[in-house]
Write a structure and sequence with these properties.
Number of helices: 12
Shape: globular
Number of strands: 12
Order of helices and strands: EEHHEHHEHEHEEEEHHEHHEHEH
Structural class: alpha/beta
Largest sheet: 5 strands, parallel
Helix content: 40-55%
Strand content: 5-15%
């Protein structure tokens, strides 16, 4: 597997990334266009993002805000401030749609619709993609390759190092077959480094966890990466409407202070991190594998409900 050539004297890359979903999350993610849900998304734009931007400015941190184009269209001023303060904007769908529920044509249409908004409002074309659902349809990898993205940040085959994501032919009563790896670099995500599962409240999902426990987990993961994964990546996924709550900001400030107490830490955007990647012979071999993809039908005598139906 290839490696990151980090800047001189840097031991680990840290991305304090944000998924600036705002109201789009409650549309595409939950189908809840209610006043209460919209107000929670509004909090992310009106309170959460400014708090993050102020903190990042004080600490000299560059980051990436994966932002649905619906958020850009709805809250253009704060999104422009993100760009003006030197942070990267990543593609995050249009209305936080779930790619696994979309036809190829619809998925491409929404991806292109988002590109139009990024160009119209921000005069940019994102180079990185993050699936709103941290999942792909059968078509997503093809579409993000065709769109020219240099990196993706949605998958979980590694945790602390980038990699080239593979296609797979999924079989039930034989082993799966590995297809070719992508030319799009993967900067992996992790539910353990996401503020939503432990801290968010949705009604059906009650997070609202103890910040001391979350902080300890995030410190432990950083400690492991710092000690055991030279040239690794520690990437958080922060949602402004969650991390932007006052007590969560206190936790994040303490985490930044802790990370900064270590030598050789490089706070960077995902674009900057992906730009350091160098393939090796194994990466090139995997990218040249014969095509293999698709999912075999479930065996007829296995009575588990088909989740793809």
């Amino acid at each position: 597997m290839g490696k990151l050539n980090l800047p001189a004297d840097k031991k680990i890359a840290v991305n304090l990334g944000a998924d600036f979903d705002a109201q789009a999350l409650w549309l595409g993610g939950f189908n809840r266009p209610t006043p209460s849900s919209m107000s929670r998304g509004e909090f992310g734009a009106a309170v959460g993002v400014p708090r993050l931007l102020d903190l990042f400015k004080r600490e000299g941190i560059s980051s990436t805000f994966f932002t649905p184009a619906h958020t850009v269209d709805t809250f253009p001023e704060i999104t422009r401030r993100i760009c003006d303060e030197g942070h990267e904007i990543g593609h995050h769908g249009y209305y936080h749609e779930n790619p696994t529920l979309l036809s190829r044509d619809t998925e491409k249409r929404l991806m292109d619709l988002a590109f139009k908004t990024y160009k119209k409002v921000l005069d940019l074309r994102p180079v990185g993609y993050r699936s709103p659902y941290w999942d792909f349809s059968d078509n997503t990898l093809d579409l993000i390759e065709a769109a020219g993205f240099s990196y993706d940040s949605s998958l979980m085959a590694r945790d602390l190092v980038p990699y080239r994501p593979q296609r797979w032919q999924i079989r039930w009563e034989e082993g799966n077959v590995a297809g070719p790896a992508s030319k799009v670099l993967e900067l992996p995500v992790s539910w353990y480094l996401d503020d939503w599962p432990p801290l968010a409240y949705t009604g059906t999902h009650v997070g609202m966890g103890d910040t001391e426990i979350v902080l300890r987990r995030w410190k432990d993961i950083f400690d492991y990466a710092y000690k055991n994964q030279p040239g690794g990546v520690y990437a958080l996924a922060l949602h402004p409407q969650i991390i932007g709550q006052a007590h969560h900001m206190v936790m994040l400030e303490r985490l930044i202070e802790y990370i900064k107490s270590h030598e050789g830490v490089w706070f960077a955007s995902c674009e900057e991190i992906a730009g350091c990647w160098v393939d090796d012979d194994n990466d090139r071999r995997m990218m040249a594998l014969p095509d293999a993809r698709g999912v075999e039908p479930m065996p007829a005598d296995y009575n588990w409900p088909d989740r793809r139906a």
